[in-house]
Amino acid sequence: MNQKNIRNMIIYRGKIAALGLLILCLMGSEFASAQQRPPRENRGNQPPADNDNNGRNGNRGVPDPLEDADYYENNEHPEDKVILGNLLFYDKILSGNMNISCATCHHAMADTGDGLSLSAGEGGMGLGITRALGVGDDAVHERIPRNAPALFAVGATEFDTIFHDGRIQRDDTMPSGIASPAGTDLPEGLDNVLAAQALFPLTSGAEMAGQASENPIGTAAANGDLAGPNGVWQLITERLRANAAYVDLFQAAYDDVSVAGDITIVHAANAIAAFEASSWPSNNSPFDRFLRGDNSALSNLERQGMRLFYGRARCSTCHSGPLLSDFDFHAIAMPQIGPGKGVGVNGHEDFGRELVTGDPDHRYEFRTPPLRNVALTAPYGHSGAYDTLEAIVTHYTDPEGSLRNYDRDNFVAPSREDLDAIDFAVMDNPELVDEIADANFLRRGILQEEDVPAVVAFLKSLTDPDNLDLRHNVPSEVPSGLPVFD
Ligand code: HEC
Ligand code: HEC
């Protein structure tokens, strides 16, 4: 299908939506106004204890509260495996130039993210919003093209679609049970999608591997050699095998590791996943307490926001279920910022789900993000385009207008002339902005300006107080002896 046909089709889709809207308005129903594709089936439909407004603004689709049974292993992971995973997560030994760890972009002190719109990968220096781009030849080459998501509740079994474009997904047709960019090269024995995910930052030149010729891992990554005998995963495994402290830790964690040579990258990935899954469950927010029947857990304003979210504002069409995500993909006119994914007319676009499915119908669709602890996880959206909850919620009052009038002060990333020069390459191109607007699924005006404070208040009630202080995640030292303080 050529570009013009696609465009026509998108416009056609828009017209149908407009016609539908007209009919529904004539019917006088706020509710039947399905503004989006039908969501996947909701797990929980239990009416909340607060039924004072059931009916017109009813609470249909309100989920069950999250509980331990919703997580892998009932949220009980073997301690030795978790300890090993915690150390690996904070150890720069996993990166080609030994200068960055998983925690650099998912730090306990930055609510399991990094507080930036777009991360500064290997070669950068420092943590969180003070992270700088590094100096000289070692400095970062480009921004990471997408926002680093927080990792709250990633151990929930429902969290089966990973990354903003879902390129890792549970898939029983694959030998490993998991679809990923590695296809059939993905090793078997991975515990779950989270373990599969842990293999991929290692293979990214910009994130952890480093550039070709800087180190053998960077070179293997640049050659696309992931699973070969001299590929990224094997080279990292050799490093772990050569470290006596790690050999002890792997032996303690796994029955099938007796000597260094038994260690595989799958053991490492499964340990990291056990650490991630067990560290940030999020079951005790005021919203969960309310769902368990404690009517006093939410204030009047928060309840008003909840009714909007599950009622007139239709947020739960996509933000459904206990994690407040359908784990499906939608285009919502999100501004596109940063270097992009090497596609589109100037190479700085990000086609989102289309990059995985190859289907132009999926252009600019991104996974609905789960909203647990969302008040802690700014900036928002796949490119970190909105810096506050007020800003992202206001986007929903007029998605296309918000895209076109985007306030660039929302973008938070360390400045460097050559990187700054391409940050707004898409937003500076009116035709590309039109394309993003045309693909938008959302209707304008469903959410009103005056609704924003209540919806924001409701979103803040999704914060679990147990997730506020994560200092205990940070190890004082790691087996490689590499620094953990930056
Ligand atoms: C340079 C920053 C950086 C580093 C280092 C990094 N990540 Fe990430 N992480 C990201 C970004 C950016 C994304 C989103 C990428 C995308 O969706 O395309 C992400 C996504 C994820 C996700 C998926 C979350 C979701 O909502 O789907 C998990 C889990 C994760 N990272 C864990 C890890 C682990 C484990 C490591 C170390 C092996 C690691 N990350 C290293 C930046 C980083
Ligand atoms: C059509 C499906 C859909 C509807 C309806 C919807 N959202 Fe979203 N939401 C998304 C998608 C998709 C994204 C991510 C878009 C991107 O990254 O490009 C998102 C992102 C968000 C984010 C940012 C989260 C983060 O971690 O980055 C918040 C907050 C949010 N939505 C709240 C709401 C609220 C409040 C409503 C109702 C007013 C709503 N959404 C309605 C699909 C939807």
Order of helical and strand elements: HHHEEEHHHHHHHHEHEHHHHH
Q: Give the percentage of residues in beta strands.
A: under 5%
Question: In one word, what is the shape?
Answer: globular
What is the terminal separation in angstroms?
49 Å
The CATH class label of the largest domain is Mainly Alpha
CATH fold group of the largest domain: Cytochrome Bc1 Complex, Chain D, domain 2
Instruction: Name the CATH homologous superfamily of the largest domain.
Output: Cytochrome c-like domain
Tally the helices: 17
CATH architecture of the largest domain: Orthogonal Bundle
Number of domains: 3
> Which ligands, by name, code or SMILES, are bound?
heme C
User: Structural class, from secondary structure content?
Assistant: mainly alpha
Largest sheet features:
3 strands, antiparallel
Mean pLDDT across all residues, rounded?
89
In total, the number of strands is: 5
Would you give an account of this structure?
This protein is an all-alpha fold and 486 residues long. It has three domains: 1-33; 36-64 and 285-463, Cytochrome Bc1 Complex, Chain D, domain 2, CATH 1.10.760.10; 71-113 and 149-281, Cytochrome Bc1 Complex, Chain D, domain 2, CATH 1.10.760. 31% of the residues lie in helices and 2% in strands. It has 17 helices and five strands. The strands form two sheets. The chain has a three-stranded antiparallel sheet with strand order 1-2-3. Helix 2 (79-90) runs antiparallel to helix 8. It is globular. The chain starts with a helix and ends in a 26-residue tail after the last helix. Mean pLDDT is 89; it is low at 1-59.
